[in-house]
Amino acid sequence: MIRAAFKSLLGRKLRLLLSTFAIVLGVAFVVGTLVFTDTLNRSFTSLFDATVGDVVVQPEGSSPGGASSTRSVPADLVERLADVPGAARVDGQIGTDGVYVIDSDGKPIGGFGPPSLGTNWSDAPAGNGLVGLTILEGREPRGPDEVVLDEKTAEKAGYDVGDTVPITTADRTANLEPTLVGIAGFPEGGSLNGATVASFETSVAQDLFHDGKDEFDSIWVTRDDDVSQDELRAEVEKVLPDGYEAVTGDDEAKDQADDLLEAISFLTIFLLIFAGISLVVGTYIIVNTFSILVAQRSRELALLRALGASKRQVQRSVQLEALVLGFLGATIGVGLGVVLAIGLRALFGFIGLDLSGQPLVYRPRTVVAAYAVGILVTMAAAYFPARRTSRIAPVQAMRDDIALPEESMRRRFVLGLALALAGGVALFAGLSDVVDIGGDGYLVGGGMLAILLGVTAMSPVLSAPLLRLARTLYARLFGSVGNLAGQNSLRNPRRTTATASALMIGLTLACAMAIIGASAKASVDKSVEESFTGDFVISSIFQGSFSSSIAGRVADVDGVAEVVRQRSGFADRDGGFSVIVATDPAALDRLGVDFLAGSAADLTRGTVIISRTAAASDDLQVGDPYEIEVPRGKVTWKVAGIFDDNALLSQGVVTDIATYEDAGYKKQDSLLVVYTEDGTDLGALQDRLDDVLADQPTVTAKDQAAFAADQRKNIDMFVLIIYALLGLALVIAVLGIVNTLALSVIERTREVGLLRAIGVTRRQLRLMITLESIVIAVLGAVLGVVLGTGFGVALMYAVRDEGLEVIDVPLDQLGLFLALAVLIGVVAAVLPARRAARLDVLTAIATD
């Protein structure tokens, strides 16, 4: 039986090739995701290892705020620590974010994702003797008009040693034009992963980023060779004053890497979710493929039974074929996954996360996962077709018309209906307030999955009216050829719908995302229209902070009546990141804040006001304590008011500027709302504002329409990424249609020969197969659009309390998906139709 199974595979090379497509792509996505994320993890771990000292002295309990924090370490500690036993050298370190290098075309380098750092130049070795940034060309900076750039930044910006480098900062001095005197890098190889670094002489960095104070953000203590990091840390702690702590470089690097990797862990989850989608779609295709293969070999399998093979042996022979196909598909998938990982690395490099200097990481678990997924999914998908082989009675070998028994469609329909009803109940429970059992998100997601699986199971029955309608239309439009195409689709509705289901899943998700994206943008437009009270908004193109000196420039522009500043910084609340916004309480009325409880006068030092959504999320009322961890440490503010959701205060937690500065945040603005004098020409004022901001390419002035468009841009980017990833599932679905049609042509070789013998032309034959393909694609599209519309509306309803109140169904996009389905059907039929048309008539008729 083993020999027979291998001969069967080798005797049907085309079927073997077609059968491996789906599993290859699914495994490739899994491998590509794992290799890319392992590379990402290794790169950040290596980076942080090379950017900390053996022992790091910093303010005690360092907390959110990072480079935006005013917490520091006094410079006189450097001399005191130099006398610590086991200390080889001590170096003060300065690092702040928001320092952008402007390239030779006037555009900022970096800014999206990885930080843009301004530091003091230090040649201190990293922990464990690792070599950090080193001057590769030129020299270190000396004096206020000199700077050193990392080599990637200098290369991207187009600067060489001796050039003048325009730089903008988010601190007091907004613009710099130092001379590039050195280019730094890692001599032993390495990368900053897209971060940019501009380094100045220490006294200059203190003047720029610490208002001239003799202090550092941290101090590195380098150990002697015969002293461990733990031993040195213990000695350092003995001489530290209250309020400061010493941590080993290994611990600090691990903490920083863990925090960052946790923050971007959604990438791994995100990509693996789509790998799972691809595998699910691929599973449908594999089930369909083996169903066809078993049906085509039913006479061969029955003959084996007649010759003495047992049911179990026949079933195992099919499973053996699945094992071989799974192994082959996984092997090819591993190779393609490496190519995909390279592509992902290039894609993320394009948006700022540059891993080009990092070699790809291949962990054993990646290969194990690839083969486990490839083999297990294929064998599981082949199980039911293999089980059906045991129903072939030996006497069937004596017949010419061998048909494999099909599973009862009535039983499938009843099971699918029960599953869909259960999913509907779970979905209702998750969306409604009638039942409160917790985990509503899981109920919604589980309900949708159950409905999707239920509809898939019911699809042979649900699709019957559409397939009959297609046959009628085809017969009227294309005559006997159209009638044959319709009958072929109806001949095996289970196979037709199984193939269509693969496309249905991809389009279900695409339609749901189209509705979510359109609704989110419509909600943003509504919020901006109702809440935008200023005439212009000035903000960073990177959604970060900028110099507080810009507000003064804008206020002096002719036609500007008032400028309201906002500041924002990260904080930690209940173990998760939160954002604190600060503004002048007197300006809340101008910002269009509608208080539901409390008033603007109640916002005093040590208090906060919160949005309706934030209050509902945390179950807060006026007068309640609001505990949060800010750069200065843990604080407890009092809730002074609750306001209706506001587009200009979208973060939902607002305090006054004095409280914000007390918390340890820097004096940097994140948003300026500009109000104009009566009668001012807004177009002319836009030009004047642009002129004032001409030397700040990271900062722009936007009117209401431009501000709304800017808010929609992030949504468009997210939806575009989703579509790109769903594209793989759609590619697999298209290959599934090609696969089914190609195998169907092989199965119907004799039939095709007879059609050609009675006068059907090659053109008519190609048309017949194309019409069959279109039926499959349109069926999948109709089911996908209906389910996707329902799921999209349900998901938007689920987040109605999160400020996304508008539900928008983009009919034009849904219509485009349906039109795309017809195109998919035409394209998928090209190769199978061409093969059918090229069959030799006599050979085809003689096929057994």
UniProtKB/TrEMBL annotation:
Subcellular localization: Cell membrane
One Pfam assignment: FtsX
Domain (MacB-like periplasmic core) ranges: 17-238, 496-691
Main location: membrane
InterPro entries the UniProt entry points to: ABC3_permease_C, MacB_PCD, Macrolide_Exporter_MacB
UniProt domain ABC3 transporter permease C-terminal: residue ranges: 273-394, 725-840
Keywords: Cell membrane, Membrane, Transmembrane, Transmembrane helix
Bilayer-crossing regions: 16-36, 266-295, 322-348, 368-386, 413-431, 443-467, 500-520, 720-746, 767-794, 814-833
Membrane topology: Multi-pass membrane protein
Family, per entry: Belongs to the ABC-4 integral membrane protein family.
The protein, known as: ABC transporter permease
Organism: Nocardioides plantarum
